[in-house]
Design goal:
There is one protein chain. This protein is α+β, with helices and mostly antiparallel strands and 263 residues long. It has two domains: 3-120, no CATH class; 131-262, Immunoglobulin-like, CATH 2.60.40. Helix content is 19%, strand content 38%. It contains six helices and 15 strands. Strands 6-15-14-11-12-13-10-9-8-7 form a ten-stranded mixed sheet, with helices on both faces. Strands 1, 2, 3, 4 and 5 form a five-stranded antiparallel sheet that branches.
Length: 263
């Protein structure tokens, strides 16, 4: 790419600030169905979009899958401050960005949004739809709750598991260990993870363990547990690149028992 053309494109995407007056407010019913990180991302994307040029779109938390990027959390929510990395698309192409966003205490509206273009996306991102993988005979795999003090909730047995959560009874926290990963990840790397069930969704930042499998810790009363088991299946999205489906058939009793014991 011609260096002058690249500079012109970067200048056209100079940092800007989106005011609170320009930012729409997330509907209360939408905000109530998701977790804090997803709520803040939606509010900040909407705030950025409100002041952007026509044809411009923001994808906060979506990053290039490479070793350097994976060493940093794609999103970080501290109180009313959301920061991290993402991508922007406009009529000049796709670009990697870093951003900072201030939201209302209820996380439903962006008060200020600033971003800086870092580089063009390599290779150009055509927003491909990730392949959805489903375990063979997924509807026949059992949902199992095991343990007394250390509890485990799993869909399937042994190597055939496609969902696993662990907690210590009464601890108030639950660790989810994802059963799929992306190529190239190393221990201590970060990965944006979306979980969707029917109309409900939540967003998390996972970190890989010594075996390069991503996981994250959430509260026992995280919104995820209020709608798990209510839809036919869960869709787990890894960085926008790989999606796998987890059957929710006959899962409600095990999920309810697990959540109650972990609180």
């Amino acid at each position: 790419m011609n260096i002058l053309l690249l500079l012109a494109m970067l200048l056209a995407l100079a940092p800007y600030t989106a005011s609170a007056a320009a930012a729409p407010v997330l509907p209360a019913e939408l905000a109530a169905t998701t977790n804090n990180l997803q709520r803040a991302v939606w509010a900040c994307e909407a705030g950025a979009q409100a002041r952007a040029k026509p044809g411009t779109r923001f994808f906060l938390g979506i990053v290039e899958n490479n070793a350097v990027q994976a060493e940093k959390p794609p999103l970080l929510l501290l109180g009313s401050q959301l920061s991290g990395f993402g991508q922007i698309s406009n009529n000049q192409g796709w670009f990697n960005i870093s951003f900072q966003c201030t939201v209302r205490p209820d996380l439903r509206q962006a008060k200020e949004f600033k971003f800086t273009v870092a580089s063009p996306v390599q290779p150009p991102n055509a927003a491909p739809q990730p392949h959805i993988a489903t375990a063979p005979d997924a509807d026949k795999m059992p949902w199992l709750l095991s343990g007394t003090t250390a509890l485990q909730l799993a869909h399937g047995k042994g190597k055939d598991q496609d969902f696993r959560a662990d907690c210590i009874r009464g601890s108030g926290t639950i660790q989810l260990r994802l059963t799929h990963s992306l190529p190239g990840l190393r221990p201590g790397n970060f990965l944006l993870t979306g979980i969707t069930g029917g109309p409900n969704s939540a967003l998390y930042v996972a970190e890989t363990n010594a075996r390069n499998m991503p996981g994250f810790t959430i509260a026992a009363d995280d919104p995820l547990w209020t709608w798990m088991g209510t839809a036919k299946s869960l869709l787990v999205n890894l960085g926008g690149e790989f999606v796998y489906e987890v059957s929710q058939h006959d899962s409600a009793p095990a999920i309810a028992g697990f959540q109650q014991a972990c609180r």
